Amino acid sequence: MELPYSSELPIHSFSRLFDNMSESYKLFWFQAVVEHVIQGKNRITFSEIIDYMIADAWYMVSEYRLNFGPSDTLEKLVFQIYENSGLKTTEKKENILKYLQDNQEPEVIQMKRTLALHVPFRLQAPFLTGAKASFWKSQATVIERMNQEKHLLYYYDQVQGLKRSIRINEEWLDYILANQSVLLGWLQFHMIEYLQKRNPSVPGIPNKISPPAKRHLEKVKKYWKAIVTVEPVCDIYTGKTLTGEEVSIDHFIPWSYVAHDELYNLTPTTKNVNSSKSNRLPDWNTYFGRLCRIEYQAYQIMWRNRTVHALFEHCKKEHINSQDALIKLYDPSIGQETFYKNLEDILHPVYNSALNMGFPKWEASGS
Fold first, then answer.
1. Which pLDDT value is given to residue 365?
2. What digits encode the pLDDT tens for the residues 16-27?
3. What does the alpha-carbon distance between residue 52 and residue 29 come to, in Å, rounded to a whole number?
4. Strand partners, 342
5. Among 108-112, 167-171, 208-212, which stretch is predicted with the lowest mean pLDDT?
6. What 3-state class would DSSP assign to 334?
7. 161: alpha, beta or left, given left = phi > 0 and alpha = psi -120 to 50?
8. Could you tell me if 282 and 252 are in contact, meaning their C-beta atoms sit under 8 angstroms apart?
9. Residue boundaries of the structural domains of the chain
10. Burial degree of 237 (CB within 10 A; 0-12, 13-18, 19+)
11. Residue 222 in contact with residue 318, Cβ under 8 Å?
12. How far is CA 336 from CA 23, 301, 327, 358, in A?
């Protein structure tokens, strides 16, 4: 991806900011810097930047369970804060930042200091020529040399620790503000590329670099509401008969992992159960057979009821995007045993992959 040209700035060096990454830090540090610049700040403390790094990585780690790398401190820090803070996986960014600003836990502070050891300096390595490995061993030497360089993205003050500030170079300040949309797109490209490399079997990575969006499942909800008026349908998690008024649509394998709204992974339940399950995996041995039964029941009703069939056709346009699933699950010639086997073939590998990514198991109380 080509960056906007500047006759005054070393764009070639700038374009190499994310070369040779073994951890995620450069991506999130740069993103935090750009976010602050867009907000009108040209002097930013290390602590402020790292708080933004944590908040920007929050959903990827806590909600989507993405892997940043085997020794990535940012991932470990986000997960530790999530485990101990009581903050939700879908917490608003401003609430995360407020919590971080007030947090003085020694272990959190130490991990933030670890993040600040190298990335503020190594990010700008492409601007330097002749800097050998030994150069980076002394932070004082690095700062002294960098503060004498021309055209760096930012420079450093002499305060120690997390209170140290960077001062954005005025030339780069103008460039970032003038090209912010392109730069954020360029950053997203590298973020997706990095995360796909670290999570090769995880679907929907491009949908997982932003906070979770509201799901649009109205057509699926209408479909299932129509089905429950034709014949009784039992919630797969509680066994209770569902009514049209209480139908809530759940992703059997959480959307946080699959990042799609395919019909075969959607099942009706109640709002309370849906909320209780959240982004956890229903126990396969307990619930998959029930899912098969309810999906096949709906499949049978759909072929013999005009109203339900019409609603299915509406759903199909948005919620059946896999040609393989369409052939294996939604052909009128398919019998029950074949349907069950085909659904298992589609879902079970995905379920196991989500389990391996750390998505916890769940069972409904009293099920």
1. 85
2. 999 988 899 999
3. 8
4. none
5. 208-212
6. coil
7. left
8. yes
9. 11-208, 218-362
10. buried
11. no
12. 48, 13, 14, 32
Q: What is the pLDDT of residues 123-148, one digit of tens each?
A: 999 998 877 778 888 888 899 999 99
Q: Which two tokens stand for residue 96?
A: 């995360």
Strand pairing class (248-251; 266-269)? antiparallel
For residue 212, the tally of other CB atoms under 10 A from its CB is 16
CA angle (334, 337, 340) in 5-degree steps:
90
Query: Token digits for 298?
Result: 């709906």
CA–CA gap between residue 19 and residue 231 (Å, rounded): 59
Angle between helices 73-85 and 46-58 (to 10 degrees): 70
CA distances, 249 to each of 57, 364, 367 (Å): 28, 16, 19
Q: How is residue 69 written in tokens?
A: 């790398």
Cα separations (Å) of 52 from 14, 99, 251, 275?
Answer: 22, 12, 30, 28
pLDDT at 40: 96
Tell me the three-class secondary structure of 280-348, residue by residue: CEECHHHHHHHHHHHHHHHHHHHHHCHHHHHHHHHHHHHHCCCHHHHHHHCCCCCCHHHHHHHHHHHHH
User: Nearest 5°: phi and psi at 123?
Assistant: -55, -35
76: tokens are 């470990």
Residue 218 CB neighbours (<10 A): 12
The number of angstroms, rounded, from the C-alpha of 228 to the middle of its chain's C-alpha atoms is 34
Q: What is the pTM of this model?
A: 0.87
Residue tagged 């670890």 (tokens): 114
